[in-house]
Amino acid sequence: MYPYFQKNIPLQAAERSLSDPIRTFLSQNPAFGTLLFQVTGGQGAFPIPNAKVHISKKLNDRLSLSITVLTDESGKTEPISLPAPDRRLSQSPNNGIVYAVYQAEITADGYIPTEIRDLPVFDGVTTIQPVSLTPDFGQPPNATDEIDDKEPDL
User: Fold this and answer.
1) Cα–Cα distance between 129 and 135 in angstroms, integer?
2) pLDDT for 111
3) Parts of the chain with a pLDDT under 70
4) Alpha carbon of 56 to those of 3, 41, 67, 128: distances in Å?
5) What confidence tens digit (pLDDT) does each residue in 27-68 have?
6) Count of other CB atoms within 10 angstroms of residue 5
7) pLDDT attached to residue 9
8) Which one of 18, 84, 104, 154 is most buried, counting C-beta atoms within 10 A?
9) What is the CATH class of 6-140?
10) Which residues are bridge partners to 107 per DSSP?
């Protein structure tokens, strides 16, 4: 396993053998940004403890990196360090994308799961991602709220 997350939380690779995609991703993303989730209900009125936050990055058709954490009694996750491109790339034009993009799925008992796509992570930046879950009042099975984060306009 690749222990690239804070507090020795292992980065999990879902493939039979680890190979070049992981090394390539980590060489392109040698720095770290931080995500912290604040999960609430009632449109932000109260925290949701023990919500599961699953963050992933698809590297190719067979390989993805992921981590799963739980929220505390205040609805917050611990800060999660994730690989990101070096911030020095943003200091010159035409250096390509200067952030890494991740997906997140947030679930809690009694609430509709929420998916967040295209979640940007920048080197040296802590992003607090608010998530307001919707109560599951007889929703059809497999109902999911989806959020597409807008790609940063840099």
Assistant:
1) 19
2) 94
3) 1-19, 91-92, 95, 139-154
4) 15, 23, 7, 17
5) 889 999 999 999 999 888 999 999 999 999 999 888 889 999
6) 21
7) 47
8) 84
9) mainly beta
10) 52
Q: Where are the domains of the chain?
A: 6-140
The pLDDT of residue 150 is 60
DSSP-assigned beta bridge partners for residue 40? 47, 132
* 3-state SS assignment for residue 7: helix
pLDDT of the residue at 144: 65
**145, two tokens:** 């709220």
DSSP string, 45-84: TEE-TT-EEEEEEE-SSS-EEEEEEE--TTSBPPPEEEEE
How confident is the model at residue 28, as a pLDDT?
87
- C-alpha distance across the termini of the chain, in Å: 34
Give CA–CA dist 97/99, Å, rounded: 6
C-alpha angle 124-128-131 in degrees, rounded to nearest 5: 150
SS3 state of residue 89: helix
Output DSSP code: residue 134. P
